[in-house]
Amino acid sequence: MAKQTDVNEEEDWNHKQTLKAAVHYTVGRTCEEVGSELGVSFNKQVIAALSELTMKQITVYAKDLEAFAKHARRTTINADDVKLLVRRNPDLANHVKEMAKGIEKSKDKEKKKRARKRKISEAGPSKDDANTEDVQET
């Protein structure tokens, strides 16, 4: 059993290191883009500090999102939890609300599409469908 725990801990550590590397790379690329626009450069210590700060903030956000979902007696984090997380940043809150609206609209369209397909399949083939099949066979 101790061996299995060690393996899980090592996998977790490897996963965290992979995430840290991805965040560090992304922060570095973002610094390059911003630096080229502003005509400045960021040294490696600044990029490392920003990466570490980003990882710590992401960890705090993850814990908060889990707590919001748990408080609502859910096991899945949803858009309402994210809205609650960003509520103190008006610009970000508006952006998240707009994104959530867009996602809801696309979900509604998909539901309507599925309902139409279901309705058509339940109705069976129409006369036009039968005529089309006859034409295709000849």
Automatic annotation (TrEMBL):
Gene Ontology BP term (one): resolution of meiotic recombination intermediates
CC per GO annotation: FANCM-MHF complex
Pfam families: CENP-S
Compositionally biased intervals (Basic residues): 110-119
Highest taxon, organism lineage: Eukaryota
GO MF, one annotated term: protein heterodimerization activity
Biased composition (Basic and acidic residues): 96-109
UniProt KW keywords: DNA damage, DNA repair, DNA-binding
Region (Disordered): 96-138
PANTHER family: CENTROMERE PROTEIN S (PTHR22980:SF0), CORTISTATIN (PTHR22980)
Family, as annotated: Belongs to the TAF9 family. CENP-S/MHF1 subfamily.
Protein name: Centromere protein S
Organism: Halocaridina rubra
Lineage: Eukaryota, Metazoa, Ecdysozoa, Arthropoda, Crustacea
Protein encoded by which gene: APITD1
